[in-house]
Amino acid sequence: MGRKSSHEQTSVALKLALFGAGAAAVCAGWKLWRRAGLERLNRNLPRGQKILIVGAGFAGANAARELAKLLPRPEHAEITLVDEDDYQLFTPMLTEAAGGEIEPRHAVSPLRDLPRRITFEQGRVTEIDIPNKKVTLESPTTHGGGANRRTLSADHLVVAVGSVPNFHGVPGVAEHSLTAKSLGDAAAIRDHVLEMLERADAESDAGERRAALTFVVGGAGFTGVETMAAVNDLVRASVGRFPNVKAQDVRALLIAPEERLLPELSVELASYARRQLETRGVEVRLKTKITGAGEGCVELQGGERIETRTLIWAGGVKPSPVVERLDCERGEHGGIVVDECLRVPRRAGVWALGDCAEIPKGASKQTYSPTAQNAVREGRLVARNMVATMRGEEPRPFRYRPVGELALVGRHVGVARVYGINFSGLFAWLLWRAVYWAKMPSARQRARVLFDWLLDFMFGRPADAVIKP
Ligand SMILES: Cc1cc2nc3c(=O)[nH]c(=O)nc-3n(C[C@H](O)[C@H](O)[C@H](O)COP(=O)(O)OP(=O)(O)OC[C@H]3O[C@@H](n4cnc5c(N)ncnc54)[C@H](O)[C@@H]3O)c2cc1C
């Protein structure tokens, strides 16, 4: 009996080994076949071509990754990626970082981890010469004085410099607000909120204490709603640690000129999001414009003045300022006008994509929205189109319909619309986390974020310290 079972075990092990070897052989065969196919396709490519990608966000970094796959050999082309930061920021996790649920650094992955086929150059691009396909960049010197300036030239230039906050010219807002756009912004929001709690705890003047405990967010889109939810949760979870701060003294306001929250989602989901925020103590003021901001105050349409030490601006984005100086056509939103294949018209070899470009949606007058979902796919397409033109083939137009939209509206609560079906509550929150976690670019980043979430789940929000430079 015993011998028979050991025979069975050996035969199962043998079958498994054969299956594993077969699968490995199929994989290796497929890779070889693909490589041979690429070699054939790339055989007649012009040698020594230089591809330069400016901006390593969702659009630029994905373009570089796809190019590295399509042009695997250095003689196919030189692929250079330039960015002022040496990391790729995963923006969907920024509000989690601002709310203290994850460590801010865990929302980024180092660009030096990209495939070796890509040359990364860190530097701030100060000038893009579109007609001559030349880019000037600056980086600090090692001795701290002046800047290292260099010019890179290219045969194919990809502009993917993203966007910056749009203050719409509202007086005082740029000077007196925090924004939720960069890694530094997320850390600054978290630190500022905790500092306000410290100050309120030590403050004897009731008016000053109220102002320190009043948190205003301007903007009702995804970033505004998620930032308000995160800040409100952070404040209310931390309040118990400050003996002189009472929860009822905290005021959180979400202010926006729109008629409802989250215009990208359905009316029902927007109303649900509003109810959830209000249940958690947020005052939602819609159809209300912020008309100005100053040292310690926010002014509203109609003359109302709110005393606050915290205004977080999430009122939209506009293309990066470097785009304003480019010698090419700009569209209604200030972005670089491109055709459906992401080419800059009348500028052979120049491409633009992501938040800094205006990509037409078919024959309609609309353009694709500035989202990471679009930018990732535009990045892959620009690489394929560029290689297609190098091979003498026709480029393809950008066509994409997002499968869904997701937003967090508080701890363990989210809203989502996926394949036209609405979800809300805990399931939508879990879906948000599962989807964005899976989309993070590296396994190391995923492991770090998972660990942060696990700690948060097991021990609640940590009593964070504010680290001053
Ligand atoms: C808080 C927040 C949450 C978001 N959540 C979502 C979401 O859940 N889903 C979604 O689809 N979208 C989301 N977005 C939008 C999304 O982040 C953008 O649409 C996306 O990042 C655009 O990609 P991009 O590559 O065009 O620009 P970016 O990702 O901004 O990349 C641009 C890059 O260019 C670099 N750069 C800019 N200027 C220079 C210069 N002069 N020199 C050198 N380098 C330069 C920047 O450092 C940056 O790395 C969110 C945005 C924010 C701010």
Helix fraction bin: 25-40%
The strand order across the widest sheet is 5-2-1-9-21
Separation of termini? 72 Å
What are the distinct ligands in this entry? flavin-adenine dinucleotide
Which outline best applies? Answer: globular
Quantity of strands, as a count: 25
Summed over residues and divided by their number, the pLDDT gives a mean of 93
Specify the number of helices: 11
Radius of gyration computed on alpha carbons? 25 Å
Short overview:
The protein has 2 domains: 49-84 and 123-165 and 318-390, FAD/NAD(P)-binding domain, CATH 3.50.50; 173-315 and 403-459, FAD/NAD(P)-binding domain, CATH 3.50.50. The chain is 36% helix and 24% strand.
Walk me through what this model shows.
The protein is α/β, with parallel strands linked by helices and 469 residues long. Helix content is 36%, strand content 24%. The chain has 11 helices and 25 strands. The strands form 8 sheets. A 5-stranded parallel sheet has the order 5-2-1-9-21, covered by helices on one side. Strand 15 and strand 16 form a beta hairpin. The protein starts with a helix and ends in a 10-residue tail after the last helix. Bound molecules: flavin-adenine dinucleotide (FAD). The site of flavin-adenine dinucleotide has 33 residues, from helix 2, strand 2, helix 3, strand 6 and helix 7.
